[in-house]
Design brief:
By secondary structure, the chain is mainly alpha-helical. It is built from 27 helices and four strands. The strands form two sheets. It has a two-stranded antiparallel ribbon with strand order 1-4. Strands 2-3 form a two-stranded antiparallel ribbon. The protein is globular and about 75 Å long. The two termini are 38 Å apart.
Length: 611
C-alpha cells in the first residue's frame, strides 16, 4: 500500500511522503480499480501527506497524536475550571486536579470510540461549552456557594464537609447528563438526525462550520489577553513553521533493517508542538527574570499548586463522586445543550471529512457519530466530569495545518489522553502551560476552521443574489442573535423556567442559529441544484460503484463481510449498508435525473429515494 500511495502522488506531480506509509487500514484493503476512482481519490486527498486511511510510522504517529493532546489541552482544562466555580470547589484543590484528570480520561475514551466505531473520522472529543450554560443554571438554582474557608478554619472536618457539599452538586449534573444524553443516543442510532441531512447542502454547511470558528473568538481573545507577547509568539511561530518552513526536512536514522535515513518534515508535521515548546521556554525565562509580573496568567508558575497537589497516580472510575441524582428541570436544561452540541458536531463532521481526504459523511456515518457522541456523554455522566462531550474544532485545524488526516494518529492520541489522565503529576505538568500560549494557538486554529467552512462555497454560484442572501443572512444572524442573548439574560421569560432555559441555550448557540436558518432558506427559496452547488458537491459520485468505493472509509473496522451478507443490516440506520427505512423502489437508475438537477436531496448520492 505504501508503494501505491507514492505512485499516486507522483502521478499528480507532488513529492512522495517524507515518512513511509504503513499498511492501509481500510477494511477492504483493495487498490483503486480504475483511473476514474484514482483521480477522484486524488482530488479528495488534495495536498495531504497522509489521508484518513493511511498511517505514519509508529513513532511519527505517537508524536502527532501527542500534538493533538496538547492542542485540546487548553479547552479541556479551561472549561472544567470554569465549572469548578459554581461547583464550589475553591477549598478542595486536590479534587480540582482529579476532576481535570477525569475530563481527560473520559475525553480519551470518547475519542477512541468515536474514531473507531462512530463516524470513523479523525475527530477529537472533549468537554463541550454547550453544556456549560445549562450546568451553571442547574447549580445556581441549587443555591449559592458557602464563603471560602479562612486559614484558621481549614480543619480536616471543615474540608471534608466542603468535599461532601460539592459532590452533592456534581451528582445533580451527573443525573441530568445521563438522562439527557440518552436523547442524543436515540436520535443518532434511530436515524432521526440522518433524515435532516436530506436538507443540508453547501449553503448550509458553509455558515454552520464558519460559525464554529467565528463563535470562539471570545475564547481565543480571553486566553490570549493574559499576555499578548506570548500569544503573538505562538501565532508567529505556527505561521512560520507551517507555511514558510514546511518544505525543510531533517535527516533522522530509520528503525528498519537497512538502517536507512528518513527525511522528516518536522516543521510541517509538528508546528504546534514546536511553537508551544518555544513559547513555553520564553515564558519560563520571563518568569524567572520577573519580566512577567506576579499574578499574571503568562507566568509558568501561575498554576504550580495543581502540580504540587496532584497525586502521582489516580485512575478515574464510575460514580467516584457518588450516586447521580435526576431532576426534571435539570434534564430539560441539559437537553438544550445536547441539541446545540449535536448541530455543532454535524458541522464538525463535514469540516473534518474535508480536511482529512474523506468524502462528505453519509447518513449512516452521521447517525452513528451522533449516537456514539451520546454514548461518550453517558460516559461523562458515569465518571462525573460535570459536562458532556462534543467534537473539538481546534483539532480539525491541526489536521489542516499538518496535512495529516490519519485516523490512526487520533486513535493513538486518544490512548495518550487515557494514559495521562491516569498519571496525575504528568498531566498536571502540562496544565502549567500558560493560558496565553493556548490562546495564541486558538487564534490560528479557529481561523483555519472558519476558512474550511467557507471553502465549501467553491461548489456554489456566488454570482447568484439568491445564494448571497442564503449565505449572508444566516452568517450575520448567527453572530448577532447569540450576542444579544448573552448580553440580555432573562430576555426569554415565560411561565415555564425549563422552556426559558432550553430556548435561551439554543438561541445562544451560534451554530444552531446560523445552521437552522441557512437550512430553512436554502430549502425554501427557489433555486436549481446547479445554482445551489448540489451537483458540484456530489460530482465525484458519478456512479454507484465510485460512491461505494469512496465511502468505504466509513465502514466499521471489522465484520463488514458479514454485515454485507446479512440483508437485515440494510434497515439499521447506523449500519454501513443502510438503505433507508423503506426499501428502494425497483425502478431504473435516476443518475440522469441527478445530472439534470431533478432531485432536492443534498446527500442523495445515487438519486434513489430513501425514507
Amino acid at each position: 500500500m505504501a508503494e501505491s500511495n507514492v505512485v499516486s502522488l507522483k502521478k499528480r506531480g507532488a513529492p512522495p511522503p517524507a515518512i513511509p506509509v504503513t499498511d492501509d487500514v481500510n477494511s477492504n484493503g483493495a487498490l483503486p480499480a480504475d483511473q476514474a476512482l484514482e483521480d477522484s481519490i486524488n482530488e479528495l486527498r488534495g495536498d495531504l501527506i497522509y489521508s484518513i486511511n493511511e498511517s505514519p510510522t509508529w513513532y511519527a504517529s505517537m508524536l502527532l497524536g501527542f500534538q493533538h493532546y496538547l492542542t485540546m489541552f487548553g479547552r479541556t482544562l479551561g472549561i472544567p475550571l470554569l465549572l469548578t466555580i459554581d461547583l464550589c470547589m475553591a477549598d478542595t484543590p486536590v479534587d480540582i486536579g482529579k476532576l481535570i484528570q477525569t475530563e481527560f480520561f473520559v475525553s480519551g475514551l470518547a475519542t477512541f470510540f468515536q474514531s473507531t466505531f462512530g463516524t470513523r473520522l479523525p475527530i477529537v472529543q472533549g468537554a463541550s461549552l454547550a453544556f456549560l450554560g445549562p450546568a451553571q443554571a442547574i447549580l445556581r438554582a441549587d443555591g449559592p456557594c458557602p464563603p471560602a474557608l479562612s486559614p484558621e478554619n481549614r480543619t480536616d472536618e471543615a474540608i471534608a464537609m466542603r468535599e461532601e457539599f460539592w459532590r452533592e452538586r456534581m451528582n445533580l449534573l451527573q443525573g441530568a447528563i445521563l438522562v439527557a444524553c440518552l436523547v442524543e443516543v436515540i436520535i443518532g442510532f434511530t436515524g432521526l438526525i440522518g433524515l435532516l441531512l436530506r436538507f443540508i447542502g453547501p449553503l448550509t454547511i458553509a455558515p454552520t462550520v464558519a460559525l464554529i470558528g467565528l463563535s470562539l473568538f471570545n475564547t481565543a481573545a480571553f486566553f490570549s489577553g493574559g499576555n499578548w507577547l506570548l500569544a503573538g509568539c505562538v501565532i508567529v511561530l505556527i505561521s512560520l513553521f507551517s507555511q514558510y518552513l514546511n518544505r525543510i526536512v531533517i535527516p533522522i536514522p530509520g528503525f528498519s533493517a537497512d538502517r536507512r535515513v528518513i527525511r522528516f518534515p518536522i516543521f510541517k508535521l509538528l508546528p504546534v508542538i514546536l511553537a508551544i515548546i518555544f513559547a513555553w521556554t520564553l515564558a519560563a525565562i520571563l518568569t524567572v527574570t520577573d519580566v512577567i509580573p506576579e499574578g499574571s496568567p503568562g507566568r509558568t508558575d501561575a498554576r504550580a499548586n495543581i502540580l504540587r497537589d496532584s497525586p502521582w497516580f489516580y485512575i478515574p472510575y464510575p460514580f467516584q463522586w457518588g450516586v447521580p441524582v435526576v431532576t426534571v428541570a435539570g434534564v430539560l436544561g441539559m437537553i438544550a445543550g445536547v441539541l446545540a452540541s449535536t448541530i455543532e458536531s454535524i458541522g464538525d463532521y463535514y469540516a473534518c471529512a474535508r480536511v482529512s481526504g474523506a468524502p462528505p459523511p453519509p447518513y449512516h456515518a452521521v447517525n452513528r457519530g451522533i449516537g456514539m457522541e451520546g454514548f461518550g456523554c453517558i460516559l461523562a455522566g458515569l465518571w462525573g466530569t460535570g459536562l458532556g462531550t462534543t467534537s473539538y474544532t481546534q483539532n480539525i485545524g491541526v489536521i489542516n495545518i499538518t496535512k495529516v488526516g490519519s485516523r490512526r494518529v487520533v486513535q493513538l492520541g486518544a490512548v495518550i489522553m487515557i494514559l495521562l489522565g491516569s498519571l496525575g503529576k504528568f498531566g498536571a505538568f502540562f496544565a502549567t502551560i500558560p493560558i496565553p500560549i493556548v490562546g495564541g494557538m486558538f487564534c490560528v486554529l479557529f481561523g483555519l476552521v472558519t476558512a474550511v467552512g467557507l471553502s465549501t462555497l467553491q461548489h456554489v454560484d456566488l454570482n447568484s443574489s439568491r445564494n448571497l442572501f442564503v449565505l449572508g443572512v444566516p452568517l450575520f444572524m448567527g453572530l448577532i442573535l447569540p450576542a444579544y442573548m448573552t448580553a440580555n439574560e432573562g430576555v426569554i421569560n415565560t411561565r415555564s423556567p425549563e422552556f426559558n432555559q432550553i430556548v435561551t441555550v439554543l438561541l445562544s448557540t451560534n451554530m444552531f442559529v446560523g445552521g437552522v436558518l441557512a437550512a430553512i432558506l436554502d430549502n425554501t427559496i427557489p433555486g436549481t441544484n446547479e445554482e445551489r452547488g448540489l451537483l458540484s458537491f456530489r460530482q465525484s459520485y458519478s456512479s454507484p460503484e465510485l460512491a461505494e468505493r469512496h465511502l468505504r472509509c466509513y465502514d466499521l473496522p471489522f465484520g463488514m463481510k458479514w454485515i454485507r451478507s446479512v440483508r437485515f443490516f440494510e434497515y439499521l440506520p447506523f449500519s454501513p449498508t443502510f438503505q433507508g427505512f423503506l426499501r428502494k423502489r425497483n425502478k431504473p437508475s435516476r443518475n440522469g435525473d441527478i445530472a439534470n438537477g431533478q432531485t432536492n436531496n443534498a446527500m442523495d448520492l445515487d438519486g434513489d429515494e430513501v425514507a
